[in-house]
Amino acid sequence: MNKNKSTRIILVGAVFCAVSCSVLHMKTYTLANGRSRVPADNSVYANKSKFDKSLLDIIDTEAIYEEYDTHYKTLSRLDTNVETATYGCYRFYPDGCLNFFTLNRNEAITALDFDPSYRGYRGVYYLENGKIHCDLFAEINQQQDIGKLTATLEFRGDTLLLQSDKTSTGRNPQVRIYIKRKLPEGYLKFKADW
Hints:
Elements: H1 3-15, E1 21-23, E2 28-30, E3 37-39, E4 64-69, E5 74-75, E6 86-92, E7 97-104, E8 121-128, E9 131-139, E10 146-156, E11 159-164, E12 175-181
Antiparallel strand pairs: 1-10, 2-3, 4-5, 4-6, 4-12, 6-7, 7-8, 8-9, 9-10, 10-11, 11-12
């Protein structure tokens, strides 16, 4: 397995550290970048039906939320203390869809980096029992199986707190932090189609 593929798997796994996930043996297809695989059957995004437009009052769909390194207290894209050059970010769409993109801090970002038909992991966010949840379909192990990763989201101003759901092993989930970042005009022109 090449280093970029391995790093991507580790990054997504870290995002949902101690996550409640299930391997889904589903048909997938590969996006235009030749690496990202997404579910072929959009019925896996069924929780999108629980999307509530009131969420748009607190979630900025005109920005990304990028990973923050709590150990070094800096944005992961600026963190030179870690070996890996990749970091993750979330993009929320105004219809309940979301993307998780893995970017490389050593490469300039372009609008194509945020095109969901080109790259990224797909999911949905929704309101359930008064809390914001998300389902993300991504690689969950070294065998590159696609699984459903679930988490609870909390927005505090420009900060997103993502807490993975408890696992069957009873381990406490960790909270990951993401900070809102505006991008140049045209970078987020793409629409979700799932």
